[in-house]
Amino acid sequence: MSRVAIIGAGLGGLSAAAHVVSQGHDVTIFESLSRAGGRAAREIRTGPLGTYSMEFGPTVFTMLDVAKEPFDALGVNMETLCPMIKLDPAYRAKFSDGTELNWPADPSDLSQTISDFAGGDASLAFEKYQTWLGKLYVIEYPTFISRNYSRYTDLLSSSSQLIKLMMMGGFRSMESKVSRFISDERLRTFASFQSLYAGVTPSQARAIYCIISYMDLIQGVYFPRGGMSAYPEALAEALGEAGVKIHFNSEVNKVLKIAEGFDVFTNGGSERFDAVVCNADLPESFSSLFDLEMPKRVQRARYSPSCLLYIVAGKANIAGSRAHHTITFSADSKQNFTALVRDRTLMNDPSYLISNPTFSDPSMVPQGREMFYVLEPCPHLDSNVDFVSRRDELQERMKHHLVEQGISLDVIDEEMFFDPTDWEQQGMYRGTPFSLAHTFFQSGPFRPRNYLKKLPGVFFCGTGTTPGVGIPMVLESGKLAADRVAEYCGSDR
After folding, report:
1. How is 37-81 classified by DSSP, letter by letter?
2. Which of 186, 211, 249, 266 keeps 20 to 30 A from 403, CA to CA?
C-alpha cells in the first residue's frame, strides 16, 4: 500500500482521491479552506432571519454518469448522499428582439418547443443537429477526452476515430458547423454560446467543442439539493467513510522530492508520501509548491476570459416568469464575444447569466427570501481593464442586470462581488477561474499534461490540465490523475 497525498479538496482532488483509494492506497487530502469544494465551495452566513448558503463557483451541473463515477469507485450511491434536481426548463434564453426560449428538460419535448419558437423547419433542422451531436459524443468522449496522453503521437493509436471526426466536420469552426444545421440566428446563438465555457468564440472554436452543447442541451442540467457545493461535500463525506483522511484549514506550502518519496509541508508540519496529486491551480503551483519555474508553454498560453460575479440574497419582487437559469443574449453576440475574447475588453452590450437557486431549493436561504447569482464574462487580468478603480461601477453594473430582468431587491440581507482581482487572490493565474482556453493546440494531447517529467510521482488534476474546464471535465481529470498513480505506484486490489 502506497501513501498518496492530494493537494486540494476541489472536485478534481476529491475525484482523484476516490479512484486512488479504490486502488487500495492510503490517501490523505490537504485543503486550505474549512470545507470541501475548492472553486465549488460555499460560504455560510448567518443573519437575524437565519442562514444563507452563498455559493460563488460553478452553477451548471451536467453529465450525471460522470458525476456518479467517484461514488461508484467508493461503492456508494450518489443519489442517496446527494439527490439531484433536474432543471425544467434547463435554461430560459432571452433574446434582444424580446423573444424567449424555455429549453425543456425532456428531449422528447424539444421538437414541439423549437417548432413553437422558430417553426417546423427549424425543429426538423435541430433534430438532425441533435443526431449529429449524439454521434460526435460517442466518438469523441471515450477516445479523446476520457483518456491520458503521454505524447502527441498517442493520437495515432485512435486514427480511425480521428478520421471519423474529420469526416463529420469536427475540425471545422463551431460557428460554420452549427450554421449548416440551424438557420435561425437565435437558435444558432443558443446552440453555440457554450464555446465561451472553453474560452473561445464560436468562430474560433472547432466543431468538436459542440460536445459541450450535447452535455448542456441534450443530457440535461441538474442542481444538487442543498446547492452546488452539496456534491463535493457529499463526496468528501463518502471519502471519510472509506478511510481517507481530510485535513481542512491545512495549506500546503512546499512539496520536496526526496529519495524515499515526497515530503509535504503544511502549516501544521510535514508528512511523507509516495506520490502526490495536485489539485491547486496548475500555473501557480509550479513555483508556489514545487519550486519550479513555470514552463514557457504554460506562461505563454492563451487563457480563458474571466468573469464578474455578483451574489445577493434578500427580499425580492420578481416580475414575470421564473427559471433557475436565465441567459440574456445581447443584440450582437458575435461582436461582443469577439471583443471579450480577442480584444480583451468588456462587452458594451453584455450577454449574462442569472441563476436563481432558490427557485429549485428554497432551503438555501431563510423563508421568504431569494438568492441570485449574476455572472458576466469579462477579460482576465492580462488586459487594459482597471478592475480596481472600476470595482464599484462594475458591481452596480451587475445589480442593473437584475433590474433589467424585472428583479427588484426590496431588502438586501447578504451580498458578495468578485472580479478578476478576487480570483487572483484565490490563487487563480491571471485572475481567471477557467484557466487555459481550449484552443486546438491547448486541448487533448496539446494541453499541459497531468504529470511532471522533472518530478516523477507528481500528478495534476483540475481545469489547467487534461481534459479541461467544466464539472464533468474536472471530475474526469481526477480519474485520469488516479490512473497515473496506478501506473506509478501499482494497485493493491
Report:
1. BGGG-EEEEEETTEEEEEE-S---B--HHHHHHHHHHHT--HHHH
2. 186
Give 51's strand partners.
46
By residue count, the chain amounts to 493
Please tell me the distance from the alpha carbon of residue 402 to that of residue 373, in angstroms, as a whole number. 10
Residue 237: Cβ-neighbour burial (10 angstroms; 0-12, 13-18, 19+): middle
Joined together, the cell numbers standing for residue 16 give 482523484
Per-position DSSP letters for 159-177, written without gaps between them: HHHHHHHHHTTTTSBHHHH
Cell of 191: 446552440
Q: What is the pLDDT of residue 360?
A: 97
Strand partners, 252: 266
Reply yes or no: is the peptide bond before residue 467 cis, omega within 30 of 0: yes
**Distance between CA atoms of 95 and 97, rounded to whole angstroms?**
5
Q: What is the pTM for the complete model shown? A: 0.96
| Mean pLDDT in consecutive groups of 10 residues from the start of the chain, 493 residues | 97 98 97 95 94 95 97 98 97 96 94 97 96 96 90 80 93 94 95 90 91 93 97 98 98 95 95 97 95 94 96 94 94 89 93 97 97 97 96 97 95 97 96 94 91 95 95 97 95 66
* 5 conformational bin, left if phi > 0, alpha if psi -120 to 50, beta if neither: beta
Task: Report yes or no: 477 and 467 within 8 Å, Cβ to Cβ.
Answer: yes
Rounded CA-CA distance 326/329 in Å is 10
